[in-house]
Amino acid sequence: MPQRRRIVTQRARVRVNQYERDLDRGPANYVPLSPLSFLARAASVYPDKPAVIHGERSFTYAEFDARCRRLASALRRRRVGRGDTVAVMAPNVPALLEAHYGVPMAGAVLNALNYRLDARSIAFMLEHGGAKVLITDREFSDTIDRALGMVKRKLTIIDIDDALHEGGTLLGEKDYEAFLAEGDPEHAWRGPADEWQAICLLYTSGTTGNPKGVVYDHRGAYLNALGNALAFGLTSRAVYLWTLPMFHCNGWTYTWAVTAAGGTHVCLRRVDPALIFPAIRRHGVTHMCGAPIVMTTLIHAPDAARVKLDHVVEIATGGAAPPSAVIAAMEAMGFRVTHLYGLTETYGPATLCAWQQAWDGLDRGTRVEKMARQGVRYPTLEDLIVADPRTMKPVPRNGTALGELMLRGNTVMKGYLKNPRATREAFRRGWLHTGDLAVWHPDNYMEIKDRSKDIIISGGENISSLEVEEVLYRHPAVMEAAVVARPDLKWGEVPCAFVTLKPGAPPTTAEDLIRWCRDNLAHYKAPGHVVFGPLPKTSTGKIQKFVLRERAKEA
Ligand code: ADP
Questions:
Q1: Rounded CA separation 307/261 (Å)
Q2: Pair 252, 276: CB distance under 8 Å
Q3: Helix crossing, 36-45 with 94-105: angle to 10°?
Q4: Contacts 24+ apart (CB under 8 A), 512-521
Q5: What digits encode the pLDDT tens for the residues 180-211?
Q6: Which of 128, 179, 227, 263 could form a disulfide bond with 380, CB atoms 3.0-4.6 angstroms apart?
Q7: Which atom of ligand 1 is nearest to the CA of 448?
């Protein structure tokens, strides 16, 4: 509060200068930023170009625009508008993409639900987010049916009855296409009166209690989408394959970025190499995104599913640290990897490992090691520091001092819905506290070493679980690895590794892997235990370290 008073007094004292007098903000020179304007433009510039492809169906930009207007109009006719929530439970199908435009065109807020969640979590989200309408794909009718049994509020249910999926039941009053038919394809919409108006609601995974509802605004969505287009080199020639779930930070805002560039969206219901490789070939895919697990799936796809790429495909990865061995294997297959880092709280990607020309001539090993760093801020993120969270003093840029990564700018969420305490906590001292521990290198690139809760402290020394995993991934027999702390009487904690071996890998023992780590790491960082088997994953494909920590106690 005292800070605000000071600003007001200062303003009162300042005389209006010549650049402020008679140079006012008005409709001609000031329009609230909204990603909805990308669609309006694309529809007028590329009306006949394929905007959305789904199986054998394809919509031009003129059709895509008309379908979104219909959706907005149908929602308005049901009295859905400003401050209302429309939830969608769907894989990457046209209806979910259209909801990214049609719902905010109606003035409402889109809540894309994570379809891998259980009924109880979905019920919590529908209740907490106050959804008025739920658009839901047949594939998830079981979960939704059970969730609706737990929800007290009344919702309008619309079914997505996609020909590309068999099974499931229809739960709602009508099918999505029939709902669109209720709407006017020429529905005249106005963008938000204020760019700070909410556009989307997304729930965090809630591994420690109830999920938090992250709220995005039109301005942040607009900026992050443009940041994406710039960071990932999207142009109107881009053909973007939807290997990243749209429910994950609105597809890291690529839902709007691809449209901003006038590219083509290729929908995909499932991350399956048997679908991905043929789609790349058939549609000439140029760009795609996915967590490192998506890359691992492609690298280890059975031979029958593989197609040799006849052009370079750009893949942006993030959401978890991509081991350099995985980057190298993707490059060998003909992909070019861009490394992004971000959180739900930052509209997805907030930093990237920006390419430097000086790296062009480096050998692959050195290059992928550089690329495995999380890098520098997005062009649309205002600032980033790696600092001691108690003193807020930035750590030295020496590649070894550990601090918390903090971000600020216009692509940081509005806050958590109905949770001012969590919002204050996340934004304390003017920065978004990411909870990620990083080092800052002399070239200003930062590198995540761990989530603060995942760091292993052994005999008073920090051990980055990512660093140990990085070494394990370089072992020729290892497909996936995760390292967590195991309580230890002598050292406090020791690293315990969980490993999945490659299919057909030569016999490899725990001792082999421990030796490999000791040969490639300081000895105290080598795991004391190695457990083989499949790794538990979260609904967004991340390895569930909290589950492994429990297992490690028994290892
Ligand atoms: P959740 O908390 O459910 O995992 P988010 O999708 O918001 O939800 O995850 C954000 C977190 O993912 C970050 O705080 C960070 O720990 C991790 N992360 C994201 N991108 C990267 C990356 N490129 N490298 C390492 N960790 C990453």
A1: 28
A2: no
A3: 110
A4: 513/472, 513/475, 513/478, 516/471, 516/472, 516/475, 517/468, 517/471, 517/472, 520/471, 520/474, 521/467, 521/468, 521/471
A5: 999 999 999 999 999 999 999 999 876 556 78
A6: 227
A7: 25
Side-chain half-sphere of 502: how many Cα atoms within 13 Å? Answer: 18
Q: Which domain holds residue 526?
A: 455-554
Which ligand 1 atom is nearest residue 542's CA? 4
Structure tokens at 537: 């994953």
Place of tokens 């052009």: 311
CB 232 within 8 A of CB 316: yes
Alpha-carbon distance values, 335 to 289, 317, 383 (Å):
11, 11, 30
Q: What is the pLDDT of residues 462-506, one digit of tens each?
A: 899 999 999 999 999 999 999 999 999 888 899 999 999 998 889
Q: Is residue 547 part of a domain?
A: yes
Pairwise CA distance, residues 304 & 313, whole Å:
20
Residue 319 has pLDDT above 60, yes or no: yes
Residue 141 lies in a domain: no
Residue 275 lies in a domain: no
Is there an atom of ligand 1 within 6 Å of 462 CB? no
**pTM, full prediction:** 0.91
Domain count, the chain: 1
Q: Measured in angstroms, how far is the CA atom of residue 214 from the centroid of ligand 1?
A: 15
Name the pLDDT band for 315 (thresholds 50, 70, 90): very high
- Does residue 526 form part of some domain? yes
Domain CATH code at residue 471? 3.30.300.30
Ligand 1 atom 13 nearest Cα: 343
Residue nearest to atom 5 of ligand 1 (CA): 343
